[in-house]
Amino acid sequence: MNNPYAEEAAERWGGTDAWAESQRRTSSYSEEDWRRCTAESGEISARLAALMASGVAASSPEAMDLAEEHRLHITRWFYECGSEIHRGLGEMYVADPRFTATIDRAAPGLALYLRDAILANAAR
Predict the structure, then answer these.
(1) How remote is the C-alpha of 78 from its chain's centroid?
(2) Neighbour tally for 18: CB within 10 Å
(3) What are phi and psi of 121, to 5 degrees?
(4) How far apart are the C-alpha atoms of 107 and 94, rounded to whole Å?
(5) Cα 87 to Cα 84: distance, rounded to the nearest angstrom
(6) Is the pLDDT confidence value at 10 over 70?
(7) Rounded distance, CA 96 to CA 92, Å?
(8) E strand or H helix at 103
(9) In whole angstroms, what is the distance from residue 77 CA to residue 29 CA?
(10) What is the Rg, in whole angstroms, of the alpha carbon atoms belonging to the chain?
(11) Do residues 78 and 19 touch, judged by C-beta distance below 8 A?
């Protein structure tokens, strides 16, 4: 997949085990693998957005369960994503406006909701 932020990502995380693992795994993905990965990610986002829209708190068991699915999705497709890494990702989702904008395309406010669900899930 063509990623316009690949150079920046390599500079930020290139020396980490997670980066190496992600590069190793994704280098062999077919177009169908990428479609499945993207579809799974979109499905998790849609379910989170539906919870958020219905007023379910990010700290609810349902939202925390979806945050856990999100964490496991990253582990399945990219690298081992423990709770500490997941918390860091959640914070990045709201601190970096590019991530926020991308996540919020599914629903305005979803990046913050996902971050809050990730933090609640990591704490339980």
Answers:
(1) 11
(2) 15
(3) -65, -40
(4) 14
(5) 5
(6) no
(7) 6
(8) helix 97-104
(9) 10
(10) 14
(11) no
C-alpha triplet 17, 18, 19: angle, nearest 5°: 90
Cα 73 to Cα 44, 53, 86, 108: the distances in Å are 9, 23, 11, 22
pLDDT at 113 exceeding the cut of 70: yes
Which tokens is 103 given?
A: 């996540």
Query: Which residue in the block uniquely carries the two structure tokens 């979806």?
Result: 66
Residue 5 clears pLDDT 80, i.e. is over it: no
CA distances from 100 to 78, 103, 109 (A): 20, 5, 8
Interior CA angle at 81 toward 13 and 102, to 5°? Answer: 70
The candidate with the shortest Cα–Cα distance to 86, out of 102, 64, 109, 57, is 64
